[in-house]
Specification:
With 710 residues, this protein is of the alpha+beta class. It has 26 helices and 25 strands. Strand 21 and strand 22 form a beta hairpin.
């Protein structure tokens, strides 16, 4: 569908709202009437050619006493739906009395088959009938929608000469119109569009990416295609068309079953209507309503191809609560076993759930077929880098890459979508990589590959032509290293996040003024016995400052034993927090001493060789939380953590070590890093030449300004 026709249809439907609904509905509520009426008219136009035959069949069935008439009537209608009422929509515009119009219109709606009734229910359209009747606008609305100047049918309108008078609207074109209407309605109501509807050119690119790399593996078989955020169903429709076309080109006989899920009741209803219009009643039953995240409509299904443009930057807090809260989620789509870790969580921040849609699809991959599964999904840039090592987003990237399922990521131009102008990326995930791709990830920079639109459509100001789509797809298939295509080892994107510890160093000042302050604390804490021990030790050590906290504790214990005072952990903690202080000149505080032979020394991880009481031992020191730091070390760093620590840490902090228990593995993909193009600086000769030109141009100006001449 060309953009001129697109705008013509949208403007016509919008004019119906402006002409008929003004002063009856606020502009933000126009959608409650216009969207369902658009669907009804689209269904009505398809049923018009067979209306008489359907009524004749109904009369025959009534005479025969048949109760379940829907299958036979749908068969006569030649569609997956039917309307057994005596009316077409055009018959109702001439009703003179509003009450008669209301009765006939309700009878007309009641005549639709059950699958259409569900669509009307999701729109909550019957709630609007009384309002329209009371305002005397229902007849006008119907008359506008059945105007011969507009065609909402999936078939073209032919004139008397057999020429196309009004072109047909295919399902995706109708979806574009619906999304544009929704966008306009929401703008009037100061709301966000909610859905990031995918333009046809982007969907066609996604379909090419999904199918062309495996076109030679398509067999005479049945294929399942899934979209977990299907919106108005356009992505499923185009995917089906493209897969069928490829099968025919390869002389294969295939059947395609479409599956989708949608949370928005309006767009769900539109998808169901489009499926019915395609004559696929069973396919329409494969569209589930509700949240994919918290109420998966296909928990036991697996699919051959999965394509989606899930919502990004959108809170999933409601789903999170339904799943049991972040700490209690056990859904096996989002909590898996990986590398021996049985509770590996891929749960992102509650403010953005887009990566959960990818996790959902990964859980539905086929692992027992030659083709496996291919996933093509759109994300914004945050999916590439948000989440620290060990957090949900990073864990999901790690899970995909370490399983060698990430085939490629393609950066798209900005302003490719109707509802957002931000940078977007297509992720290509498969569990059947070609042998030459194993262990590798391809990044493609397609940000400059675009064709400008003559007129913006929302935020969309550019598109992919067939030639550009072929260029991008060929880069993916050819798998070559170029300026726009980079190939990396899987580990290129991974890193260790280590926690660097340094020893705690404490000193204790036993000066009399310090002891007086400590005595006040002991009185307040009702621990006067401790003060007795401290006073005796201070006198023994001549009220000096002790730079070795280990020695201080040892001497303190001796004094306490001598006067029969117990030093509980609570009392020792009170002494440390109230009397000791960090001191970089003090000795390191010992946490634990190990016997040689029972523990091996490893200075990298904080197990140091030492000598105590004349005997060799292995010492652990207490870490100083204030000196704690973290480092990120690439997985491909030569020599690993040990060499990095030697090169980059020990030269600055020779007493440091790594807390191995806190080491995490993270993954992030920095597109800018790999495709950065530095600005080419001008040469010195160019700069000099420009200065000389400026001097010539400005010669004499100063004299003119200050009124002097030569």
């Amino acid at each position: 569908m060309d953009h001129k026709l697109h705008n013509q249809v949208v403007n016509f439907i919008w004019s119906i709202a402006d002409d008929c609904l003004r002063d009856v509905y606020v502009r933000g509520k126009y959608r409650d009437v216009i969207l369902p009426m658009t669907v009804i008219r689209r269904l009505d136009a398809v049923l018009e050619p067979t209306k008489e035959a359907v009524l004749q069949m109904k009369a025959n069935l009534d005479s025969a006493g048949v109760i379940n008439q829907t299958p036979a009537l749908c068969n006569v209608a030649g569609q997956a739906f039917c309307n057994s009422s005596p009316f077409m929509l055009k018959d109702l515009k001439s009703r003179a009395k509003q009450q008669q119009l209301k009765a006939d219109f309700i009878a007309y709606l009641d005549g639709f088959s059950p699958n259409v009734q569900e669509i009307l229910e999701k729109f909550k359209f019957r709630n609007q009938i009384d309002t329209m009747i009371e305002a005397d606008i229902l007849g006008s609305i119907i008359e506008k929608f059945v105007s011969p100047t507009i065609n909402l049918s999936s078939e073209p309108v032919i004139d008397d000469n057999g020429e196309i008078k009004l072109p047909a609207l295919d399902n995706h074109s109708m979806g574009v119109i619906f999304e544009e209407l929704i966008r306009k309605f929401n703008e009037e109501n100061n709301e966000e569009a909610g859905e990031h509807f995918t333009p046809r050119d982007v969907v066609e690119l996604m379909a090419d990416i999904a199918f062309l790399p495996v076109a030679d593996k398509i067999k005479d078989s049945s294929y399942l295609v899934y979209d977990g955020a299907c919106g108005t169903g356009g992505m499923l429709t185009i995917a089906e068309e493209r897969l069928q076309q490829l099968a025919e080109e390869h002389n294969k006989e295939i059947s395609i079953n479409l599956f989708g899920q949608e949370i928005n009741p309006e767009t769900y209803a539109i998808t169901k209507a489009d499926m019915l219009l395609k004559g696929e009643g069973l396919q329409a039953e494969n569209v589930a309503y509700g949240s994919t995240l918290s109420n998966d409509g296909f928990p036991t299904n697996s699919f051959d191809f999965m394509l989606s443009n899930p919502p990004y930057g959108k809170s999933w807090k409601t789903d999170l609560e339904r799943l049991g809260g972040k700490g209690d989620i056990t859904d096996t789509r989002f909590v898996v076993t990986h590398n021996g870790e049985v509770d590996f969580k891929m749960i992102p921040r509650s403010s953005d759930g887009q990566l959960l849609f990818l996790a959902n699809k990964i859980s539905k991959m086929k692992h027992n077929t030659e083709l496996g599964s291919r996933i093509v999904e759109v994300h914004n840039g945050s999916s590439l880098f948000t989440g620290d090592a060990g957090q949900g987003e990073s864990n999901l990237r790690r899970y995909v890459i370490e399983n060698d399922w990430l085939e490629a990521i393609i950066a798209l131009p900005e302003n490719m979508f109707y509802n957002t102008g931000i940078a977007t990326y297509i992720w290509v995930v498969t569990n059947r990589k070609a042998p030459h791709r194993c262990g590798k990830v391809q990044l493609i920079d397609a940000t400059s590959l675009k064709s400008p639109l003559r007129k913006n459509l929302g935020n969309k100001n550019c598109e992919f032509t067939p030639e550009i789509r072929a260029q991008i797809t060929n880069m993916l298939i050819e798998f070559a290293q170029t300026e726009q295509s980079k190939i990396f080892d899987n580990k290129e994107f991974g890193y260790w996040k280590i926690t660097v510890e340094r020893p705690l160093r404490l000193s204790v000042d036993l000066a009399r003024e310090k002891l007086a302050d400590f005595n006040s604390i002991c009185v307040a804490q009702k621990e006067t016995e401790i003060m007795t021990v401290i006073s005796e030790l201070a006198e023994k050590l001549q009220y000096t400052k002790i730079n070795d906290y280990n020695l201080f504790v040892s001497e303190l214990s001796k004094v306490a034993d001598g006067i029969n005072v117990k030093l509980s952990a609570k009392r020792l903690n009170l002494i440390r927090t109230s009397l000791a202080q960090t001191d970089e000149t003090a000795e390191k505080v010992i946490k634990k001493i190990h016997k040689v032979g029972k523990t091996e020394a490893n200075a990298l991880y904080g197990l140091f060789n030492d000598v105590k009481d004349g005997k060799p031992c292995i010492v652990e020191y207490e870490p100083d939380a204030n000196l704690r730091d973290t480092e990120q070390i690439p997985l491909l760093y030569v020599g690993g953590v040990g060499q990095f620590f030697k090169d980059e840490v020990l030269s600055f902090a020779p007493d440091a070590w790594v807390d191995e228990s806190k080491t995490q593995i993270g993954y992030e993909i920095n597109f800018t890093k790999y495709f950065y193009k530095p600005l080419q600086l001008r040469s010195l000769d160019e700069i000099k030449a420009e200065i000389y030109e400026l001097e010539i141009e400005t010669e004499g100006l100063l004299e003119e300004v200050i009124g002097r001449s030569k």
